Structure formats: structure tokens, C-alpha cells
Amino acid sequence: MSYSAWIILTACLVGATSGLIGVFLILRKMAMMADAISHTVLLGIVIAFLITRELSGPHMLIGAIIAGLVTAFLVQWLHSLNIEQHASMGIVFTTLFAIGVILIATYVGNAHLDVKHALMGEITFIPWETMTLPFLGDVPVATAMLGFAFIIVLFFITAFYKEWKITSFDPALAASLGIPVIVMHYVFMSLVSVTTVAAFDAVGAIMVVAMLITPAAAAYLWTDKLSIMLVISGSFGIISAVLGYFIATWIDTSISGSMALATGILFIISFIFSPKHGLVSKFVKPATAKIMTQDG
Amino acid sequence: MAQPALKVMDLAASYRKNKVLYNVNFEVAAGTLTGVVGPNGAGKSTLIKTLLDLHPALTGHIEFYGLPFKKAKKKIGYVPQRGSVDWDFPTNALDVVTMGLYGNIGWLKRPSRKDKQKAYQSLEKMGMEGFADRQISELSGGQRQRVFLARALVQDADLYFMDEPLAGVDAATEKAIMRILQELKALGKTVLVVHHDLQTVEDYFDHVLLLNKTVIHHGKTENVFTSDKISETYGGNMKWITSREEGYHVVGPSNK
Amino acid sequence: MWSALLTSNTQWVLISTMVLGIAAGTIGCLAYWKKQSLMSDSLAHASLPGVIIAYLLFAEKDLYILIAGAAVSALLGAAFIQGIRQTTKITEDTAMGMILSVFYGLGIMLLTIVNRSAGGNQAGLDSFIYGQAAAMVRSDVWTMIILALAAIFFVVIAFKEWKLYLFDPAFAKGIGLSLKGMNILYTLALVTTIVIGIQAVGVILISALLIIPPLSARYWTHSFGAMLFLSALFGGMAGATGTAVSTLGSGWPTGPFIVIFASGFFAVSLVFGKQKGILVNYLQFKKRQKLAQFQQNNNKFKAQGVSK
């Protein structure tokens, strides 16, 4: 496969995986949690590196999952101490991120890890570092990791579809029906961490937030059905990835930045044209639906 | 005496460092319809949440038909307050009702056509069949409450807990809900309802639990729902006003 | 000796980060009570494209120009968040996350272009974005101090109006305070603090300076005035100590050290704070539990007495 084909494939995998996860992120009102986790994953990777002195896929993945879970746990813990969710998130992720940056500056030195790379991602270099997989031959490491993350996310979402739905919509009912709401919460946080770390190399810590949240928010404006929202969001993720790639090659700039911008463009289009919630539809017909909910 | 549907012993709970419930002891006989009544901040919602293990108890012991909560889960249905969920969630009325069955469907399985049918019948019972595929944000407050009740019905539980199902609903919905509650009772089910409207207590419930951080009084409505016992619960703020000409009671704040 | 210290660049930087910490601690209290802690994070990221566009337009790394660009871009982000929240069913946190990451993405795109074309100048821009206080020159320091003092002055002079606006907006409106005007002032003060902090702390961590000190202050007092003061104190101390420590090693970043010290003060407050600190809470909980048990035993005793 050609150099740019690998990049596009990798970008599409980022888009699809984060598009799927993002739907539940916004429905669970945890969009900013993605921001928090995407920052703290850095610390997980740095610590994994300091322990193993290696920057290999599995180590990074484990480090990142642990960092993600620790973040989720700390936020929950501070929240249980009567600190509002937004504030506890703010304090946890900035602190952990700061520790990560300091560790890089003091211990890691100029190893293959630098903050800028982590924050911006460098999808351009992805095809250079390959590994050999059975049946598939030589595959870039980052692509393989993303493929793995995509399969995991797809599996968990389809297999436990109704459990995700009910725990997102009405956790109290779910708990009273005997569905382990808290376990599901941490499983979900792990999935977010897996997605983030797999996308890390390609798009960097902050742009992955765009890939996670924006396609899902755009899809939310197009449909009232969860299953369709998942499909649209995943597709929007892929479209943004491809669109971003072409914008980037066109004006010769950062691919990950362009992908993030592309998600924003898709959102603006949805914001204006979506049949039910878009600006245009609001001008064409006054919102009758809103009036109906105004009783009692 | 038969096994009580619910037995609560020495229950205490705190919420955000304030003690909301202490020394709560009561038993609910099977086949009764009980109104849980008390002033704001009396711990009515907390009581239900604590019973259902949604809120941690400081002390206490709770039995459902002689079993601990974990073993009795399948027998229990819960109708939370309407405001507790996000009505912009991308789903329709039928789907919300089907969620009541998720506990029985089991892991990894999708709701079958039969499950959907059950859910649809339950919606019919609440007079909501015409709204089955309506997006939930487009339902009115009363319709939302009916969907919630339909969801509880589909669970086919023996013991129901309902948190303010009649708050802010239209008259037609209130009627429909009360009809269903009476039906449930006729089927031998047990229902506990957190209720805020003192005027209707006598008409709606055969048992009343007066709550203000602890059980003030509990028993048959005619024995418990009396002027002095209500004042005791509300700390003397409420008064029993008997209107002789019209022959019905009005309960209102005594300082008016 | 004092004059020697005063002339050294480190000393200047130290003073500026301290003033920055004080300003952030003060404005952060407003953000905290507006329940908008994460808003500052969002706006900080959103300022990135503005910085670079300003640089591209004027081809100069003049602090005033960069700050103006950052402010315009952050205010635009704030307007977008507001607009999305009001016209769609999308919640505020989702809107914040979107603006944060999409604006940042645009910023990275532009930065890549600048770095490609402008060659030598880029290093300065990078440290502006990721926070390198040591790279600041005297005029930068003055700019920062002046703007930070202006922001603090804003809050202090209208102290009682802010208090009303935050705790009881309906009442504030009733007595003739313009909520819209206050909202604009608040956003301006917030954005000013963010953009002047970027150079010293970086776009990613400046929000920490706004979020953490007010939280720490809350563990010591119930009074808004005292909270404001303590928060400013914690912020100032974190700014000064963090900067001082970061000068100990070569290439050590300033921002993260400031954040670590702010979090350190928070941890101490969380545990030992006299209002709702963990230690105090634990002792109270034990006391209550004992009381509950005592009451229960008492009741059992009574019940037995009756049955006999």
C-alpha cells in the first residue's frame, strides 16, 4: 500500500473509533472527561516509558488505560467529597498533565518522546514504523493499534448496546434492574483511554478530543435514534479524516490539525442544515415540538 | 400474618453531611397502596433511593419479601422522578418502555419482537400507544410520566416504588395513573408512592406513611391521616380545615 | 544585594508570575461560582489561532499584538459556545469540548504553516504557546503586570456587585444591575487573565491557575471576601514558588511547576482545611455514627421496656 493510503486508512480508523465512542461521551455528559483523559494519558505513557524504557504499543496502551482509569477514579473521588464535577475534572487533569510534562523535561530528556509531538500528533511519520502481522504482512504500528482499538470499541458497543443505552439514559433504573452501572462506567472510561492512546500517535492529545466530540455532536443534530446516531457519527469521523487529509495536503500543513478543523466544518454544516434542529429548519417552520413540552 | 412486602429496620442515611433519615422502622403489608407524605426535605426521595441501594445507608437492615435487595431485585420496580433523566436522549417512547425489560433479557441479547410487543401493550394500558415511536423530547410532561409508568408496568414487579409520579402532570394523566395503581393493587401488588398533594391523599391511598426524617406515623389512612398527626409531621405548619357545608377536607398552611 | 536581585531577569519573571497567580486566583473565584471552571480551559485553547493569525498579519512577535489576537479568538470561542448552547440541544460541556479542540486544531494548522515559512522566528512562538516564563523579556513582564493588575482592580473595585451577580443574579437584576453588562465584564476579565497567562504557563495549563486556587480557598472560609483573598494568596504563592523551582534546572518548564505547587496547596487544604476538610469531616462522621448507634440502642432499650 502506498504511503498516503496508509495515512488515510489510519486517519479513518481514528475517525470511526472516536466517532463511535463520542456518541456515548456526549450522551453521558462527559465530553470534558475526554479532554481530561486525553491529557492525562500523556502521564500514563511517560510512566510506562520510565518503567520499561520502551515506547512500544502494548506498554503505552496499558499505561494509558491505567492513567485513564486513575483520572476517572480521582474525578469521581473528588466529586464524592463535594467538589463539583467541572472543578474536580479541572484540577485532576491539569495536575496529572503537569506531572507528565515535568517528568519528560527532567527524566526522559530527549528520548523519542516530546510534549509537542504528543500534543500535535504526527500522522505523517506513521508509515515508517511497521510491524509484521499474520495474514496482513507489514503494517504500520500505529495503524495496527488503531485497528485493534476499533475492533475492541465496535465489539463492546454492539455486544452491550442495550446496557450502554440504559446506563446512559437512566442509570438509576439500570441499577435497580441489576445492571452494574459503576463497572460499566469504568469500562467506558477504559474504552475512551484505549481510543485516546491509539489515536495519540496519529492526531495528538488535543485533536483527539475534536475527533471524539464533534462528529457525535453533529450527528446528534441529525437524528433522534441512538443506532442511527452511532452510524452517522462514525461516518462523520471518517469523512472528517479524509477531508482533513486533503485540506492538509492542499495547503501543506498539519494533518491532525486539519482533521480537527474538518470536524468543525461538518458540525457547522449540520448546525445550519440539519432537518430537525438546524438553523434553516428553524426559519422555515417554527418549532412546534418545543411548545408541546411546555405543560405542567 | 403473611410475609410483609417490605420490612425496614433501624435505617439511617445522610445526604451531603446532613442527616436526612434516622431510626426509620416500618413494615408494608403486601397488596397495599401506600402514600409517603411529608414536608420538603423530609427525606422521602432519599428513603426510596436508600431502599433501592441507590444511596448508601449509614445503618439499618432492609428486607423485601424476607429477602435482601440483591435477591429481590426482580420483584422490584422503580419509577424515578421525571427530572432525573435527559429527555433529549435519542430514543423513542417504546424504546424507553422496553428498557424496563433489560434486566430480564440478559447480557449480549437484543430485545426480541416479543419484548417489544410487551412494551407496546404496556403503552396501550397507559393510553400512549399512539406515541410509541415519538421522540421522547416531543412528549409533554404528563405523557413522559405515563411512559415512565408503562416502563414500570412492563417490569411486572411485585413491589413498586414511585417518586412523585403525580407531580406536575395534567388531570387526565393523574386519572390514568391512579387507575393503574388501583389495578396493580387489585392484582395483589404492593405500591409505595411519594406524594406531595395532601388534598388527594385520602382518595388515593389506603395506607399512609407520614415521614419527617423518621417515621412519624404509619398505618391505615383513616387512622393516620388525621389533623393532629399531620400537624405533628409538618411541625404545626399545616392545619386540617373542615369545610362543613361542602363536606370535604382541605389541608393548608395554618398561617394563611 | 536587593538591587542586584531586582535587576536580574529571574526576579522580574518571578514577580510577573506572582502577579499573574494573584490575578488568576481572583478571577478564578468568579469562574468557580459561575460554575465555569472548564470554560477557562476551553477559552485558553481557543486563543491559539488568534495568536498565530495576529502574528501572521503583523509579522511581529509583539506581545500586545499577540495578546489582542488571543483575546479576539477566545472571545469568539466564548460566543460560539454560548450560541451552540442556546440554539441547540447540545449541552455546554460538549460545546466547550468542541470549541476547545477545533480551534486548537485550526491553531496547529496555522502554526505548522508559520513554522514552515518563517524559519528562525518560530522558537519564540512555541514558547509563547507552551509556556516558558524564562523566555520573557522586560517589556513582556511589564505588559503582564499592568494587565493583571487591571483585572484584579476590576474585581476589587466592584466587589459587592460581583458578589450579588454571582450569588443572586435575579436580585441583582431587580436592583438595577445589568446582567448583560456584568457578563461581558466577567468574560473580558477572564479572557484577559487567560491570555496574559499563556506566555508564562502555556495554553494547556493556564486554566489550572484559574481552577485550583479558588477550590483550595473554599476549604478555609465561608466568606466570599476571604475566599477571594485566600485564592489570590494561593495563586500568587504557586506562581512565585513554581517559577523559582523551575529555574533550578535548565529547560525546565515553568507552567507545570506552578501547577504542581497550586495542586500541592490544594492537597493540603483538602486534608486539613477547617471547612469540610477530609480530616474534620471524618471526625464529624465518626461522631454522628456513634450518636446514631447510641440512639438506636436507646430505642431498642425503650422498645424492650414497653414490651415487658
From TrEMBL, chain A:
Keywords: Cell membrane, Membrane, Transmembrane, Transmembrane helix, Transport. One of its GO terms (cellular component) is ATP-binding cassette (ABC) transporter complex. This is Manganese/zinc/iron transport system permease protein. It holds the Pfam family ABC-3. The chain crosses the membrane at residues 6-27, 34-52, 58-78, 90-109, 141-161, 173-192, 198-221, 228-248, 254-273. GO terms for biological process: response to zinc ion; transmembrane transport. It is found in: Cell membrane. CDD domains: TM_ABC_iron-siderophores_like (cd06550). Belongs to the ABC-3 integral membrane protein family. It comes from Gracilibacillus ureilyticus. Gene3D superfamilies: ABC transporter involved in vitamin B12 uptake, BtuC. It comes from the Bacteria. PANTHER family: ABC-TRANSPORTER METAL-BINDING PROTEIN, METAL TRANSPORT SYSTEM MEMBRANE PROTEIN CT_070-RELATED. It is a multi-pass membrane protein.
TrEMBL record, chain B:
Residues 6-238 form the ABC transporter domain. Keywords: ATP-binding, Nucleotide-binding, Transport. GO terms for molecular function: ATP binding; ATP hydrolysis activity. Gene3D superfamilies: P-loop containing nucleotide triphosphate hydrolases. Belongs to the ABC transporter superfamily. This is Manganese/zinc/iron transport system ATP-binding protein. It comes from Gracilibacillus ureilyticus.
UniProtKB/TrEMBL annotation, chain C:
One of its GO terms (biological process) is response to zinc ion. The chain crosses the membrane at residues 12-33, 63-84, 96-114, 141-159, 184-212, 224-248, 254-273. It is a multi-pass membrane protein. Pfam families: ABC-3. Keywords: Cell membrane, Membrane, Transmembrane, Transmembrane helix, Transport. The keyword Zinc does not apply. CDD domains: TM_ABC_iron-siderophores_like (cd06550). It is found in: Cell membrane. GO terms for cellular component: ATP-binding cassette (ABC) transporter complex. InterPro entries: ABC_BtuC-like, ABC_TroCD. Its main location: membrane. It comes from the Bacteria. The keyword Isomerase does not apply. SUPFAM superfamilies: ABC transporter involved in vitamin B12 uptake, BtuC. Belongs to the ABC-3 integral membrane protein family. This is Manganese/zinc/iron transport system permease protein. It comes from Gracilibacillus ureilyticus.
